Amino acid sequence: SGVCNALSLEIKASPKVRAFVGEQALLKCSFRSSSPITESLLVDWTYRPLSGGQMETVFHYQSIPHPTTAGKFKDRISWVGNVAKGDASIVIQNPVLSDNGTFICSVKNPPDVYHNIPQTVLVVTERGLAFQLSSAALLSIMVFIPSFLVVLLLLVRMGRKFRVLKEKGKGGYKKSSIEVSDEPEHTDTPGCGGKFKEWCLNCVDTDEEDPY
């Protein structure tokens, strides 16, 4: 009789489930019973931390779901199963690294109460940095792109002026004192970008001067 009961109720569960921090984790559990499903059917999910220790019940089902009211999984486990279809699955909301451990799905459908004990190992990890764009990262990008465009335009302008000065130098042209005086004078103290531009222009002018 014991052997018949052991074979009359079979449970299947995923041996390993991978999840990411903050994203829900689905723990699948299906069962097959030789007896009709009644209101006496019981489903219990137990959990043991990765570090070891005692098993603790984190979810109970009998006619209606009864999530745990204490412990680390309080208000984080939802019932997504359907006992009429042999489904006793649950979902863990907002998993964290400390949730890693072993889960066991147990089903009893009197008189079928003997079954195998499949274990599900939950592995919660962080997603790669490529999938995480914090507000600080977005702000940095928004600041970097305009700055890059300004520097690029400045370099293009300097390149054009360099070519003009180079062509004038090849033609024996040299600025007169009048042309120099016609250029607007900047009395304001240049900022970091202005100083950099002035230094680069001075370098260009110095390199293109004709030797005496």
TrEMBL record:
Keywords: Disulfide bond, Glycoprotein, Immunoglobulin domain, Membrane, Signal, Transmembrane, Transmembrane helix. The gene is Mpzl3. The keyword Cytoplasm does not apply. Its main location: membrane. It is a single-pass type I membrane protein. PROSITE patterns: IG_LIKE. SUPFAM superfamilies: Immunoglobulin. Belongs to the myelin P0 protein family. It comes from the Eukaryota. It is found in: Membrane. GO terms for cellular component: plasma membrane. This is MPZL3 protein. InterPro entries: Ig-like_dom, Ig-like_dom_sf, Ig-like_fold, Ig_sub, Ig_V-set, Myelin_P0-rel. Residues 174-194 are annotated as: Disordered. Pfam families: V-set. Residues 22-125 form the Ig-like domain. It comes from Pycnonotus jocosus (Red-whiskered bulbul). The chain crosses the membrane at residues 136-156.
